[in-house]
Amino acid sequence: MQEQLINFLMYILYIPIVFIIHELGHALFVVLFGKEVREVQLGFGKDLFRIKKFVVKRSMGWNGGYCSWENIDSLAWYKKIVIFLGGIILNLVTATLVWIFGDVQYADWYRSFIILSYFIAVINLLPFKFKSNITKIESDGLQCIKLLNSMKQGK
Q: Which residues cross the membrane (predicted)?
């Protein structure tokens, strides 16, 4: 029972952390390709607090996050794909590093982080739109498919 409680609490704690890592993955590649990140946000809705370009919204991180950047139309198509997949890449890298280098003695504490990170990475590969009364967002996978389709059609 105690182990189940620890796992549940770790999932709650790690959800916003995994979303922040995901959004920072997009931001990392935007900056590496010479563009500017406008904002990295956790959650949606009205601002709860802001520190420079990082903002936490009222709904917190239970329903995701968002990274906005300046126009990337001038970038090569493969750089755009890397930006769209940047969150997935960073989720997979951080989860794998924790898995490889994590001390087995503390596995109960970080197992939830690994599972959530892989889960978020896989879910974001699926092409879907997330709509709520607060926001409308396309998954990373859908953005990649749209980009590849527009290239195929010569746009």
A: 12-33, 81-102, 108-126
pLDDT tens digit string along 49-82?
999 999 998 886 567 899 999 999 999 999 999 9
Q: In whole angstroms, give the CA distance from residue 126 to residue 85.
A: 12
Determine the structural domain holding residue 92 and report its residue range: 2-152
Amino acid at 82: V
Q: Give the chain's domain count.
A: 1
pLDDT digit string (tens) for 97-147? 999 999 999 988 898 899 999 999 999 999 999 876 667 889 999 999 999
Q: What is the Cα–Cα distance from 107 to 33, expressed in whole angstroms?
A: 36
pLDDT the model gives residue 8: 79
Q: What are phi and psi of 74, to 5 degrees?
A: -75, -10
Helix then strand then coil, % of the chain, to nearest 5: 60, 15, 25
| 81 CB burial (10 A radius; 0-12, 13-18, 19+) | middle
Residues with Cβ < 8 Å from 71, sequence gap 6 or more? Answer: 35
